[in-house]
Write a structure and sequence with these properties.
100 residues, alpha+beta, six-stranded antiparallel β-barrel, 1 helix, 6 strands
């Protein structure tokens, strides 16, 4: 049963997790305006409730927090989804998905 308010959109977006003055590769496999699922492709381990910064070309800089973890996959809540920088990049994709 789906517990989210927003429907997630499937995707394959290359991204960088920015932590500790380093960057680690990741792959966003789905997203919604308030969350995303991320596969960590390098040796980075993120703890439950750990905050991190993510960058991807489509959405720019995202501030997020780990909500759940299964192996190398994590579910994250987007904290800055309301900011103009992020919402202006997400909005066109929401309009696109509504037309399908």
């Amino acid at each position: 049963m789906e517990r989210r308010n927003e429907i997630r959109q499937a995707c394959e977006l290359s991204s960088l997790v920015l932590m500790f003055g380093c960057h680690f590769r990741g792959l966003i496999s789905d997203w919604s305006p308030k969350g995303l699922k991320l596969e960590l492709t390098e040796s980075l381990m993120l703890a439950d409730r750990e905050a991190f910064v993510l960058h991807c070309e489509r959405f720019g800089v995202i501030h997020a927090e780990v909500i759940w973890r299964r192996g190398v996959e994590i579910g994250a809540r987007i904290h800055n989804w309301r900011t103009a920088a992020v919402s202006s990049r997400i909005r066109p994709y929401l309009a696109q998905s509504a037309n399908y």
